[in-house]
Amino acid sequence: MTIDDQGAQRPAGAGEAPEASAIGAFSGEQAPDAAASAAPTAVAEREPILRARRLVKTFGRVVGLDGASLELYPGEVLAVIGDNGAGKSTLIKCLTGAEVPDEGEIWLEGKRVNFKRPQDARDAGIETVYQNLAISPALDVAANLFLGRELRKKGILGSVFRVVDQKGMRQRARDELRALGISTLQDVTVPVENLSGGQRQAVAVARAAAFGSRVVVLDEPTAALGVRESNQVLELIRQLRERGIPVILISHNMPHVFDVADRIHVQRLGKRAATITPQTHSMTDAVAIMTGAATG
């Protein structure tokens, strides 16, 4: 064991990696070999679109990540599960720029990146849907879909007077919802405050799909939703996979995880305990790995 400058303990050698390149920039280095996992060999032979290696993150004397690694492959749904305090949220925040890891490496499409803020990750094509959804109830569906990315009218009206192109945004919002197969939102001019929980989640997921050109991250998307609304969200996740967009799904709901995930990353005590699949392991096996009663 070694003790870092803040007094947190971790295994010797964990997270020892050179510093990343400039903010959100690519250094051009070649990606390292994939970390070993319990995933099928066919998956391991592919090149990950997103990879984290030996990430370390401490908060004073509290160790959030202790050499955590993760691989996400193109066109797959990777579920991240773990008990409370296992480091799931910290891992995702490091991958999406909400937190900066103290040590370790993050690679996107074979190039090393260093996200200092969430906007860096968004600029790189990584979109995140958090539990609070980050939507504005008073705005309509189209306005929420383009929140922070509003389209301006062409010519002097847009460039000088900054007039928003509401007609264009509403048409693109309809196209995006149609592409995802979202039939419950027929009118994009309806204020979000008038929508159900599942419909609001659909708006947040559609926004992520519209701008997440490389990766979409969903943090507990079915929390506090009923059975019918949860099934709608799960269908949206399948639609994203069919469109070739890789998804990271953080969830405590084991039936949902085993329903849509291609692989399952099990987080325990700040690091990866195992990577399993619904075909090779049961829900009982996953819980046993989460609690330390079994290994991957």
UniProtKB/TrEMBL annotation:
Single GO term (MF): ATP binding
Region ranges (Disordered): 1-42
Record organism: Agromyces salentinus
Assigned keywords, A-Z: ATP-binding, Nucleotide-binding
Domain ABC transporter intervals: 50-294
Domain of life: Bacteria
Pfam families linked to this entry: ABC_tran
Protein name as it appears in the record: ATP-binding cassette domain-containing protein
UniProt key word Nuclease: no
Gene3D superfamilies according to UniProt: P-loop containing nucleotide triphosphate hydrolases
UniProt key word ATP-binding: yes
